[in-house]
Every structure is written in structure tokens, then in C-alpha cells.
Amino acid sequence: KVEKEKIEKIIEAGLWAPSGTNLQAWKIGVIESECVLKDLKKMTEESFQIYTRLKIERLFGGISSIIDSSRSFSATLGGAKTVLAVFSEKMGDEHERMIAFQSVSAVIQNIQLAVVELGLSSCWMSDVMKKGSEITKLLGLDPLEYELAALVPIGYSEKYPKLIPRKKERVFYK
User: Fold this and answer.
1) Helices 53-60, 64-76: crossing angle, 10 deg rounding
2) Nearest CA-CA partner of 167 in 18, 59, 34
């Protein structure tokens, strides 16, 4: 389990993310209850089966080792005893919704940078949005007011995955 002081530093880093038009339209849940984590694992496994598996097969040609490790991570949340659930407030206007989601993405990035700085590991799990309404309800929020952006399991890693090279030609100059 990650120490409370470290979780507080990680959350603080997230809350100081830049926010388009200063909406700060986010909410962060800290999940450590074994009962809730068990339900989350079931939902992340279901999300893997209905979406992530097909995506991996399409992107990586069905490489069984990638499918197996991704399924295992989804089913166990990587063994994390602490998971942050990051939500965006639902906005009526599509432009404001986009701004809110961009801001929430900055929150998640700040969280992950703080995690690394504190000697921990994390994973930005976004495919779980396929079960977003169910997860939102499970965590006691109204799916009409909030939408799940990601789950971020946090912990001390026993091993580190091989880094995937960055794609070429992603920057241009004019």
C-alpha cells in the first residue's frame, strides 16, 4: 500500500494542473477499499474483454504475450492497492467538454509525473471508460454529472515494462 503522505503529494500535483479557462472541472477518487477494488477489477477485466483485447489484436496483430500481460494487468489492476479514479465534470457545451477533458488529461499527467518522482509506478488506464458509468456509480458519483477519464493504479513495481519506441514524424515545423 502506498503511504498516505505520498498519495497526498500525488493528488496535490494533480490538482495544480493547468486548466482551460480555469474550469478545474475534475474530481479525483482515492480507492483503497479491498471490496471496491475487487469490483473495479471485475469491471476492468470486462472492459478488457469487450474492447481492449480487440484493440490490441488490431494494433499488434494478436501477439499473445501483449494480450496476456494486458489482460492480467486489467484483471488485477497491476496488483495496486491504491487506485486513483479521475473524472471530468460533464459539460453541456461540446467545446467546454473538450476543454474539461484536456484539463483532466493534464491532471493525470501531473499525477504520473509525481508518481515517478516519488519512486512509484502507475498506469494510465483509459479503456475503462467503456465501463465509465458503472464505475462512476460504484464510486458514488452521478454519471449525469461526471464521466470517468481514467483509472490510475499506483504502487511499488516489482518489474518495469520495456519502453515502446516513440512513433516517427509526429512533429512538423513551418
Assistant:
1) 150
2) 59
φ/ψ of 95, rounded to 5, equals -65, -45
pLDDT in tens, 1-47: 899 999 999 999 999 999 999 999 999 999 999 999 999 999 999 98
Q: Is 83 helix (H, G, I), strand (E, B) or coil?
A: strand
Question: With the C-alpha atoms ordered 31, 40, 159, 56, is the resulting torsion angle positive or negative?
Answer: negative
C-alpha–C-alpha distance, residues 64 and 154, integer Å: 25
The 10s digit of each residue's pLDDT in 108-141 is 999 999 999 999 999 999 988 889 999 999 999 9
Please check whether residue 27 is in contact with residue 63, taking contact to mean a CB–CB distance below 8 angstroms.
no
In a 3-state reduction of DSSP, which class is residue 158?
A: coil
Task: Determine the longest span between alpha carbons in the chain, in angstroms.
Answer: 54
Instruction: Give the angle subtended at the CA of 151 by the CAs of 24 and 1, to the nearest 5°.
Output: 110
